[in-house]
């Protein structure tokens, strides 16, 4: 496995100056990001299919062990506040259970039984999107979970940092970021982990765009849960509708904090009329605005 290889270039790393060590780490991070570019078509294809399934009411299911599992949890937990993705549409299957998020659980990643049980216990089905992440691509827990999910008709996405990894063979959408050897041999929290985070960022963000939760590059589905975000909501309404500050604030108040509804209200719609337009458009603000414009 390339991620486990030892590089003679870094044989005396511990004798280098701190600046030279950091330079090596930094170069590794840059190469990790660059390794993702060739994966963009695979990420796009995975997101397109995921959107179809999620529109039918499916869930995003993150599967992984150790660093990979924690990166999956980080990606998923950022979706509700950023895009108002429902909490009940997220599932995390981490080898060793929730306690493994905070500390290592020895041998948990080797349990095939736990991987299968996690999928069965959460009743994963055809509308669900299961994302398995493993730097080595050989983690038994993650491979078993993907196999079981595939047998139940779910979409399976596998993310690995090693070519020819078994994980990539058992999923419908393999995504490879070949990051190669680490500066610190086998420390996949570095280059491999960075590439995984980039891939998940790209994948989940594209899914949210395709789900209509972004308009004009703005987070129009975000949860305005504090003063800063409420202020940001007002600014976005003003940006989209070109209304004044008072109109934006009043529209958000009438909309009960829902930014998309507030945009339509600021454009002249009644609250119920705005909600109906959004319902017809499947929550897509661009389509709802076009629908409303035809009637005015």
From TrEMBL:
GO terms for molecular function: carbohydrate derivative binding; carbon-oxygen lyase activity; ether hydrolase activity. Residues 50-213 form the SIS domain. Keywords: Carbohydrate metabolism, Lyase. Its EC number is 4.2.1.126. GO terms for biological process: amino sugar catabolic process; peptidoglycan turnover. Gene3D superfamilies: 1.10.8.1080, Glucose-6-phosphate isomerase like protein, domain 1. The keyword Lyase applies. This is N-acetylmuramic acid 6-phosphate etherase. It comes from Microvirga makkahensis.
